[in-house]
Specification:
Layout: H1 3-10, H2 18-22, E1 29-42, E2 53-62, E3 67-74, E4 78-79, E5 87-100, E6 107-118, E7 124-135, E8 148-155, E9 179-191, E10 208-209, E11 236-247, H3 252-270, E12 280-291, E13 301-308, H4 315-322, E14 337-339, E15 344-349, E16 355-367, E17 381-394, E18 405-410, E19 436-445, H5 495-500, H6 531-534, E20 578-579, H7 594-600, E21 617-619, H8 629-633, E22 639-651, E23 664-669, E24 677-678, E25 682-685, E26 700-705, E27 719-725, H9 734-744, E28 746-753, E29 759-766, E30 777-793, E31 811-830, H10 834-838, E32 848-849, H11 865-870, H12 882-885, H13 887-893, H14 912-931, H15 940-979, E33 981-988, E34 994-1001, E35 1008-1014, E36 1019-1021, H16 1025-1035, E37 1046-1048, E38 1055-1059, E39 1064-1071, E40 1095-1096, E41 1108-1115, E42 1121-1131, E43 1138-1145, E44 1150-1155, E45 1171-1174, E46 1180-1183, E47 1193-1198, E48 1206-1214, E49 1224-1241, E50 1246-1253, E51 1259-1265, E52 1271-1274, E53 1279-1281, E54 1286-1293, E55 1299-1309, E56 1314-1326, E57 1332-1338, E58 1346-1353, E59 1360-1366, E60 1372-1374, E61 1378-1381, E62 1386-1393, E63 1400-1409, E64 1415-1425
Parallel strand pairs: 20-44, 21-30, 27-40, 32-34, 33-42, 43-49, 49-56, 57-64
Antiparallel strand pairs: 1-5, 1-9, 2-3, 2-4, 2-6, 5-10, 6-7, 8-9, 11-14, 11-15, 11-19, 12-13, 12-16, 13-14, 16-17, 18-19, 22-26, 22-27, 22-31, 23-24, 23-25, 23-28, 25-26, 28-29, 30-31, 30-55, 34-39, 35-38, 35-41, 36-39, 37-38, 41-42, 44-47, 45-48, 46-47, 48-49, 50-54, 51-53, 51-55, 52-54, ...
């Protein structure tokens, strides 16, 4: 076994957490830890101090995710000095080195003290004696290393305690673990920049000692020297590989034929009914790199291989392969193979672990669309890459040195390799008859000597090395001035540049099969890798989201020759789903400096004061909250005034927008069951011009209200909203729900750009700190990250499949931080009167409903209102006039008595008819008094009128008599039914089951078969015994349970129950509804009136279920009711765990897959299954049953709507079998937009037209783009949109990066701030052909940048005007962005490269366009910041 292989297979490294890796900023930094001694170690009497030895073990720990990573470093064993029964000291004096880019405060070093005791077999027993956490970085961002000396207190116990789920803050270990009294570790920590030259040889996050052997670093002269204090690199030499030839067994033709046959078979199985669509080999590549067992010494080089036949092979290749004897014996017949023109030159160090690794890659292309009748050139094709063979060659394996002619056997299959990719393995015996080989001629130059110089390694250099399973960063890029199309040398351009010149686009790695998707822009690993690697897209950043449009496609079924129903095959689409964030909101990220905070809070924000005008107690948002319900009940201040103060907004630089974006913002959110709020527009105030903080783009901008006339408000800065939650406005028992809401819920706030009405992002804040817990008032300050999703799609997103078998292309989404919202929350307690507080005491909640006692008879006497109040309201009724209780009858009777009008206020409770009759009487009396006419009985007119009235009254009496006869039976029945009616109130919320039992008694002396009828399907009888038992155990209801108690009536499935004479039984009921209100406020800032005054919790239940009354009748054998149960449903708010917003083209179905969070997933053991329900009956949602341990997804299918409408609905997920209470409730918004597909070339300005239709009235509108630096709009200013007219809007696209992206264009009414139209622009950008490439080195932290010049020759014979653009305007500036030169003349382009704070390599493209902004040439400049 070679030294490289032993090092590669022996080492195992745990990678850091993926989210922590994404948070890493800047380059890697070297650190040096020195552990000096442990003082205060207690030596027990029973221990043999002379036999005990101590050791330190150090491991990196991520406290934010409770994750250990890297590898454990072990010190040497050292004795303890001291006497028995006293404290001792252990001297270590050992140094630990490592480098990391994870400069975060959550990354710590775990130090464990281990006791080593000898055993009889010669080995040692290791027992932990204590541990501690060493803080490496001092602040949240991690720019400051906690350098200097310090003492670390040790804790008793094991480091496994850090993985306990209840330990949220590892720095507070003293609260749960006991400290080793007097025992401390003396250490020092300091940055170590001397590691920078060897960082490419030492992987990050690996702890090593100074005497450890690192391949490529000069080893110590003795075993104790610290070589990493000032490390030195071994000398490297150049080696050349010529005549490289790859032979595939049995031949290239047979090998590729079998491989393509398998791929085509997979293609036919994936797409039903597609004929003539085959996969072809596009390119064959050889990847060569130097590996030291830990990682790549430099970036591997990529070369293109050419296929040749033995009879046509060049003499050069023939002589290179057959000119001498090979080191390894193998079949060496001159069959066809793959050869490399030219030579390969590498630099390698003289170390036993350094080896050369070869990888053979195939690039395949396959068609994406077509019906089989189109030619191969007309069908769009996609390309993907796959590793088929690889091998490794150790130069120093032979003590005599490597041979000049080398032949290596290449291997395949699922074996560990430095790339960490799956390798193709042939399963047929025909292919396995021989071995694939690679042959080449090796030569080297060591200090100017000839190639025959023997390369030998001394035994001191052949020490074992450690492996790290990741590629290192790019170290160098060779200068290139020739065309990339003519180059055969891999190091000339990066892999992205090589793939940009390919004829075909490539395929995305986000789906499992290359024929189920369309095209991205970069060459990616083959989709033939395992499905579990490709189905997950981890969320980057803070709670990022990754999702795609669901590729639901029917699979081919086996056709039977006979006619019959086709059998459905099992199909699980491979996709990248939406990943939920859960209910936990990220803690406040205190990234703002103290200077910025001091100036921010000196702006004069209003203070939160309690009832005694004292400043409210300030809480720390990072501290946990202990919620005690009893303390809330004993709080003398039962009223709560919730205060939300929006203080400031910090801009984060974004690509494609100006640095002063946004200018104004507004917020939308919904708190508890208050109506949804759309705040007023708030202006972002930049710091004063004379302020030194003006240069800092991360300075928080104070928010200020904008008046109606556009001026700024002169009041307090910021925006304050108050919500008064008084017990008199809460329902009985609702206060418990309100406190539960504050304790568990996260308020999601959407931040909008007030000018363009585009969503900037969303922020989530926990409300648990608003629980006062007996205090008069509390407040807490938060700095919340405003996060949004950026959509990326395959490169050929615009090419839709017209065939019904075409799959929907994949969408990749990643999260980005758009800004920081500074928010202050507060809760001020208030006292209430005794009458108000008594209303908040609900009756004892019971799940058993007892019918009311039989009412007593009426004892007679007066039926006054006072007497009625004393009696039972269910059997007493006060007589009323018929017109007062029936409005229709009153209108009929008073039809002829409305000749005289009047309008005065009537008393509450009077009907309109009674009120009109009184007015008519008063008007008639006043008319008689004013006329002074003879008495009415002497006036013939009045006599005639009186007779007519008597006739009308007679008719009215007949109508009344008919009405009484018709309604008498019904009224008596209603009166009697109230005597057997029992009312029960349920406080229900969305999707939550409310259980109760009704005690039904048979009042007769004969048996009865009672039929239970209900007028609402949401209230049902529990007929299954298992379900009844489950709810009784859940609610702890101690009542009898009977097996098989109900019988379902034939034909109607109505439950029936048999009752013996005078028997009482319990009937179980459950109420559950999934229907909820989906009302949305108008999209705009002026369409909803906003009040900053305190708002009361009135009966406005937005986003809740509807209040209703349900009647359940128990009918006997004769059909008459025995008892009636009237269930009054009062809605209560529900908690929304997650909110999703999707953007979809109008009038199209939205298909999504949402992945459930693993934190609460209880289906891992396979004992339960998932159930999903939707509040919108038009939305289809379901989930599939998967084996235990597999991730669970919820699939959605949402119908479309016209633009710019929004669809809103709720999704509930259950994990219990009876759907008792939802484990998750999601709120989903679907924004529908007009869609337009655009195609362009990077750096080129292309104009397109959009048709804007006018509304019913003329409007003053303005167009806003989501990326104004890449998307231009004409007209760009405010213009008049004619009513019912058509306006042409021109859109100019200048995309700076290749690939497919989503841009948004909104048309806003500037007068009322309302959205008129919205477009989803799907931009597909192709990278232009790179004609020249350059390399430049720019120093880091220099502050001056660099000025360079490149020449450009006008290829035309006439004078032309050219324009300059770049894809990185923040890094590169031009001396002149527009120039004119004559035909054939040379012009010198002046370049100004901005300085960088972090080392690394950046590829910058320079676009040279003509006067019409069409691309003429493209230069690539590789900038190395060092």
């Amino acid at each position: 076994m070679s030294e490289w292989k032993s090092v590669f297979e022996r080492n195992r490294v745990i990678p850091p957490h993926s989210q922590t890796t994404r948070q890493a900023q800047g380059s890697s930094q070297g650190l040096r830890l020195i552990f000096k001694q442990v003082d205060g170690l207690h030596i027990k009497q029973s221990e043999e101090s002379h036999a005990l030895r101590y050791q330190l073990r150090v491991t990196l720990f991520d406290s934010g995710h409770q994750h250990f990573f890297g590898r454990t470093w072990k010190s040497g064993s050292h004795p303890v000095s001291g006497t028995l029964g006293q404290t001792g000291r252990v001297l270590f004096n050992e140094a630990v080195y490592f480098h990391t880019s994870l400069c975060l405060s959550s990354v710590m070093a775990l130090v464990e003290l281990v006791t080593l005791s000898p055993r009889t077999d010669g080995f040692q027993n290791a027992m932990g004696s204590g541990f501690g956490l060493l803080q490496l970085f001092s602040d949240q961002i991690g720019n400051n290393i906690s350098q200097g000396e310090g003492r670390l207190s040790l804790f008793n116990g094991t480091p496994r305690a850090l993985l306990h789920p209840t330990l949220k803050d590892p720095l507070q270990l003293n609260a749960v673990l006991s400290v080793m009294e007097g025992c401390q570790l003396l250490y020092s920590i300091q940055p170590h920049p001397a590691l920078t030259p060897i960082m490419h040889l030492l992987p990050p996050n690996i702890l090593v000692s100074g005497h450890d052997s690192i391949p490529g670093v000069v080893p110590p002269t003795d075993g104790t020297a610290d070589v990493l204090r000032k490390p030195h690199l071994l000398k490297s030499f150049s080696c050349v590989f010529e005549g490289v030839h790859v032979a595939l067994s049995p031949s290239v033709e047979v090998f590729e034929s079998n491989l393509l046959q398998l791929l085509n078979r997979d293609c036919q199985n994936t797409n039903r009914g597609v004929e003539g669509r085959s996969v072809v080999v596009q390119e064959r590549r050889l990847v060569v790199g130097v590996h030291n067992g830990w990682g790549w010494a430099e970036k591997p080089h990529v070369f293109v291989l050419e296929r040749e036949v033995g009879s046509t092979r060049t003499a050069r290749a023939h002589g290179a392969i057959t000119g001498g004897s090979f080191k390894h014996t193998s079949t060496d017949k001159l069959s066809e193979g793959l050869s490399l023109r030219g030579s390969v030159e590498l630099k390698i160090m003289r170390h036993a672990a350094f080896s050369i690794v070869f990888q053979l890659q195939y690039v395949f292309s396959c068609p994406l669309a077509g019906d089989g009748k189109m030619t191969s050139t007309a069908v769009p094709r996609a390309a993907f890459m796959q590793c088929v063979r690889w091998c490794v060659w150790s130069l120093f394996l032979d003590p005599e040195g490597p041979c000049e002619n080398v032949c290596l056997n290449m291997q395949g299959g699922a074996l560990p390799n430095p790339w960490g990719v799956m390798v193709y393995s042939a399963n047929t015996q025909q292919i396995n008859l021989g071995k694939s080989t690679i042959k080449f001629k090796f030569s080297s130059s060591v200090e100017g000597s000839s190639s025959s110089t023997k390369l030998q390694v001394t035994p001191r250099e052949m020490l074992p090395a450690k492996k790290f399973l990741s590629a290192s960063q790019d170290e160098s890029i060779v200068e290139l001035k020739a065309s990339t199309l003519q180059s055969t040398r891999g190091p000339a351009l990066s892999l992205s540049q090589l793939t940009a010149t390919s004829r075909y686009p490539t395929m995305s790695h986000t789906v499992g099969s290359p024929w189920q998707q369309q095209l991205p822009s970069l060459l990616s690993p083959s989709p033939m890798a395992s499905a579990h690697q490709l189905s997950h897209v981890e969320r980057p950043g803070a709670g990022g989201i990754a999702h795609m449009e669901l590729s639901v496609q029917e699979r081919d079924g086996e056709r039977n020759e006979e006619e019959g129903e086709m059998q459905e095959l099992t199909f699980n689409p491979v996709h990248a789903p939406v990943i939920t964030l859960g209910t936990h909101a990220a803690s406040s990220c205190r990234s703002t400096s103290r200077r910025s905070l001091a100036q921010l809070f000196s702006s004069g924000f209003p203070q939160i004061l309690d009832h005694q005008n004292q400043v409210a107690e300030v809480l720390d948002p990072s501290e946990p909250v202990n919620f005690d319900p009893r303390r809330e009940e004993a709080d003398p201040f039962q009223a709560n005034t919730l205060i939300l103060q929006f203080l400031a907004f910090t801009r984060v630089p974004q690509a494609g927008v100006n640095s002063d974006w946004p200018n104004s913002v507004h917020f939308t959110f919904q708190l508890y069951r208050f109506p949804p709020v759309t705040t007023e527009c708030l202006k972002l105030l930049d710091p004063e011009r004379n302020s030194k903080i003006k240069s800092n783009p991360d300075y928080p901008c104070v928010l200020s209200l904008i008046n109606k006339d556009g001026t700024l408000s002169s009041g307090f800065p910021g925006l304050q909203l108050q919500y008064r939650v008084d017990p008199q406005y809460l329902k009985p028992g609702e206060r418990v729900w309100f406190l539960r809401y504050l304790a568990l819920h996260c308020l999601q706030i959407d931040v909008w750009d007030s000018e363009s009405l585009m969503l900037i992002g969303s922020a989530a804040v926990e409300l648990k700190h608003m629980l006062r817990q007996g205090r008069a008032a509390v407040q807490v300050n938060h700095e919340l990250e405003v996060i949004t999703t950026e959509y990326l799609q395959d490169a050929n997103f615009t090419r839709r499949h017209d065939s019904k078998h075409g799959a929907i292309p994949a969408i990749n989404v990643y999260t980005t931080v758009k800004g920081i919202l500074h928010l202050r929350l507060g809760n001020v307690g208030g006292s209430v009167s005794s009458t108000q507080s008594s209303l908040t005491l609900p009756a004892a909640h019971s799940h058993v409903v007892q019918p009311s006692e039989a009412p007593q008879g009426f004892a007679g006497g007066s039926v006054s209102a006072f007497t009625v109040l004393k009696l039972n309201a269910s059997n007493t009724r006060r007589a009323q006039r018929l017109p007062e209780i029936d409005s229709e009858l009153a209108r009929l009777l008073q039809s002829t008595m409305r000749e005289v009008g009047g309008a005065i206020l009537h008393k509450p409770g009077e009907t309109d008819e009674v009120h009109q009759r009184k007015i008519d009487r008063m008007a008639a009396v006043r008319q008689l008094e004013e006329r002074k006419t003879p008495p009415p009985f002497l006036d013939n007119t009045n006599i005639t009128r009186h007779k007519a009235e008597r006739v009308q009254h007679s008719r009215d009496l007949q109508v009344i008599e008919a009405y009484r006869e018709r309604s008498k039976a019904q009224e008596i029945t209603n009166m009697l039914s109230q005597a057997i009616t029992t009312s029960h109130t349920l406080y229900a919320s969305l999707a939550t089951t409310e259980f109760f039992e009704f005690v039904l008694k048979n009042p007769f002396n004969v048996a009865q078969t009672v039929t239970i009828e209900c007028d609402n399907s949401e209230l049902s009888v529990i007929v299954k015994t298992e379900e009844w038992r489950y709810f009784k155990e859940l609610t702890k209801t101690l009542t009898p349970l009977e097996e098989e108690m109900f019988h379902l009536k034939e034909g109607t499935l109505t439950p029936q129950v048999y009752l013996r004479p005078k028997e009482s039984i319990h009937i179980p009921f459950k109420f559950q509804t999934f229907i909820c209100g989906h009302t949305l406020p108008p999209q705009g800032t002026k369409s909803l009136k906003i009040s900053r005054s305190p708002q009361m919790a009135e009966k406005h239940l937005s986003n809740t279920i509807q209040a209703k009354s349900i009647k359940v009748q128990f009918r006997g054998d004769d059909g008459k009711p025995l008892a009636i149960c009237q269930v009054n449903v009062e809605p209560t708010p529900h908690v929304v765990d997650q909110t999703f917003r999707f953007y979809q083209p109008e009038l199209t179905f939205l298909k999504k897959a949402i992945r459930l969070p693993s934190a609460w997933d209880s289906t891992a053991d396979g004992s339960t299954t998932l159930h999903v329900r939707c509040s919108d009956p038009n939305v289809i949602c379901h989930t599939t049953t998967l084996p235990p341990g597999e991730p669970q997804d919820v699939y959605l299918k949402v119908p479309g709507r016209p633009s710019p409408q929004i669809r809103k609905f709720f999704i509930t997920i259950f994990t219990d079998p009876w759907l008792t209470s939802p484990a998750q409730i999601w709120q989903v918004y679907v924004h529908y937009l007009q869609r337009m597909d655009l195609s362009c070339v990077c750096g080129t300005l292309n104009w397109h037209s959009l048709v804007l239709h006018g509304t019913k009235a003329i409007r003053r509108v303005k167009c806003y783009a989501s990326h104004p630096l890449e998307l231009q709009v004409d007209p760009s200013e405010v213009f008049a949109l004619p009513a019912q007219g058509v306006q042409d809007v021109r859109v100019g696209v200048r995309a700076l990066h290749p690939g497919s992206r989503f841009f948004y264009l909104n048309v806003v009414d500037v007068d009322i701030q309302q959205l008129v139209a919205s477009w989803l622009l799907c931009i597909t950008c192709r990278q232009p052909v790179i004609s020249k490439a350059f390399e430049i080195k720019v120093p880091v932290d220099g502050g001056r940048g660099s000025n360079k010049k490149i020449s450009f020759t006008n290829p035309y014979s006439s004078s032309r005007v050219f324009k300059l653009h770049t894809d990185h305007p923040d890094l590169l500036k031009f001396k002149e962005e527009r120039f004119q030169i004559g035909g054939g003349e040379i012009y010198t382009i002046g370049l100004r490269f901005a300085p960088s704070q972090n080392p690394g390599t950046e590829e910058i493209l320079v676009f040279i366009n003509d006067q019409e902004d069409k691309n003429e040439d493209t230069y690539c400049v590789s900038v190395q910041y060092r």
